[in-house]
Amino acid sequence: MKRLQYFIESRAFGVCTMLGDKLGFATSSIRLSFIYLSFLTMGSPVIIYLALAFWMNVQKHLRRERSTVWDL
Fold it and tell me: Mean pLDDT for each 10-residue chunk of the chain (72 residues)?
């Protein structure tokens, strides 16, 4: 079970982990509430999840590209 959890977490975008770290909640509770909300609202939180994943990816690339002020 731990191998399956590691595989899924390494392949996913890490949105739930980032939210858990920023807000101080357990990552597992955020994942469970995301799953429950997805079932109750017919999948609309998936759009929010993908938008957050896109934003995290953009931030990662912006931080990596411009390491100093003089690198233009």
Answer: 73 81 88 88 86 84 66 56
Q: Are 56 and 18 in contact (CB under 8 A)?
A: yes
DSSP state of 12: S
Cβ atoms 56, 14 nearer than 8 A: yes
What is the value of pTM for the model shown?
0.62
Nearest in space to 45 (alpha carbons), one of 30, 60, 56, 34: 34
The answer to whether residues 13 and 56 touch, using CB atoms and an 8 Å cutoff, is yes
Give the E-state strand segments of the chain in sequence order. none
